[in-house]
User: Fold this.
Amino acid sequence: MLRLFFYKLIFLAIFSLNLNADRIPEIHSFIDKNAQYFLTIIKTEGSEYEADPEKFKNKLKNIWEPMVDVRLVSRLILSKAYSAASEDQVLRFQERTKKLLLDTYVTTLLEFKDYDLSTDQEIKVNKNKTFEVNVRFSSNTSYSFSTKFTVYKNNAGEYKIVNIIIDGINLGLTFRNQFQGVLKKSNFDLDEAINSWQPLSSEELFST
Assistant:
């Protein structure tokens, strides 16, 4: 019961209203450095994706995985199903979540590989000390859009991403709602739901 209450508090913190904005160089650097590197690989090597998607995505894992708190994100997506899940199911769901988040983010950015990005210096500070970092994608030939990263500092003093909003699409909420639908369709068989959960295509993501 206490564990469920704790994660509800974190969930509220992640999706809370902004309190103020400040310049926090270490958070700006954490997002900007990794996002620029990520986009550089997309631009320079993105053509390899069609030939061998898994090989290409493996090149991005070393950037992506250390940035994201997959355990927390997974628990938020599982929602009420987390309390009844076995340790094995939780671990498998974490691996599945990690793969689907990377798949969705990579395939989305491949659509915008001709863009350049800039990270706002002003960091929005949320309740319970979570932060929102805004990254702007701009192009001379198409419209501009923003991606917002929700970040917090864990007990080890590391900054971790716990949510991403791409052009107004909240991936945390979208993934949670999608998985809950898959779980219901599988008659709340968690193993079946984990195995059948598929990544969102760009069309599905931006039509939600």
Remarks:
- The first strand starts at residue 18 and ends at 23.
